[in-house]
Amino acid sequence: MECKVRWTGDGMSFLAETGSNHTIVMDGPPDAGGRNLAPRPMEMVLAGTGGCTAFDVVMILQKGRHEVTNCEVTLKADRADTDPKVFTRINFHYRVTGRNLKADVVERAVKLSKEKYCSASIMLGKTAEITHSIEIVDAA
């Protein structure tokens, strides 16, 4: 996996080009020379982690032939007050929608993501206390 990040020369705006040929713009806040036109790099880390675990949960449920129709993960994070301002606490709230989904099945999918599959959350768990909550919505 590779990624190239370059400064656009405009304030604190950066352009990332991924190995899969996608482009992402990142920007800083106005008080740091940015123009607030795009997500901050640490927001991208959090968003990527949410995407990683949501992907896992949906894939695990689908492989188990469960009728999952939607999966949302809301992440709320705290960061250290001093540099490096790493994440210190992150709560993952899963809102999984489907037909006849059982709590133990969804909990197992989240646990597998947390402990085995989601590289991003496992990596962040080295500096942050990670908690999970689950909400199941019946689509019937």
From TrEMBL:
A Pfam family this chain is assigned to: OsmC
Spans through the membrane: none
Entries under PANTHER family matching the protein: PROTEIN YHFA
Name of the protein described by the UniProt record: Putative redox protein
Organism: Oryzomicrobium terrae
